[in-house]
Amino acid sequence: PMAYLYALATAKAHRGHGFGRALMAHVHDLLAKQGYEAVLLVPGEESLRRYYEAMGYRTCTHIREFECSAGAEDLQMYPIGKEEFCRLRRQLLPSGAVLQEEEGLDFLAEQVKFYSGKDFLLAARKEERRLFASELLGDASLAPAILQTLGCSEGVFRTPGDKEPFAMGLALKEGAKLPDYFGFAFD
């Protein structure tokens, strides 16, 4: 089991006094005692990578993020529930991926809608005519048709990949393996 830390912050007036590091050390100890083997987080900005590296975290997963415009053709796709999404996601995830189910998926389901179609699975939210795809699994070349079908003119898609550094991890137990893919950050 792995824990996912989200939205950790120290008030500006109190930065540089070691409060964040002390909190992280306490959380690491608590998680290890509860049986967690590793902890993951997604830094909110690049400068935080160095901060977490100093605590022993290392970048363990990467994504590919790209923008595109709607294409001319629609495709067949349909909304699905989170149970169906989980079932299909397990089939399409790359090896070494974190499943991210249960509470994390419950939270995500409040932020995005789940869709399926031939050769793809999508978790995305619309903001007017712009789509933000938290995760597109399967054939990424379908992104322009997905946008057209959902009535969006442009979109940003995240897929498994090796381009942009994404999640960082810290092994809490000796021999713990960090994942190769972590798909969802709570943006």
Topology:
Elements: E1 2-5, H1 19-33, E2 38-41, H2 46-53, E3 58-59, E4 62-69, E5 77-80, H3 82-92, H4 103-109, E6 113-117, E7 120-127, E8 130-138, H5 143-149, E9 154-160, E10 164-165, E11 168-171
Number of helices: 5
Total number of β-strand segments? 11
Q: Over the alpha carbons, how many angstroms does the gyration radius reach?
A: 18 Å
Proportion in helices = 25-40%
Mean pLDDT value: 93
Instruction: Give the biggest beta sheet.
Output: 7 strands, mixed
Unreliable parts? none
| Proportion of strand residues | 25-35%
By helix and strand content, what is the structural category?
alpha+beta
What is the strand arrangement across the widest sheet?
5-6-7-8-9-4-10
End-to-end C-alpha gap? 22 Å
SSE arrangement, N to C: EHEHEEEHHEEEHEEE
Morphology: elongated
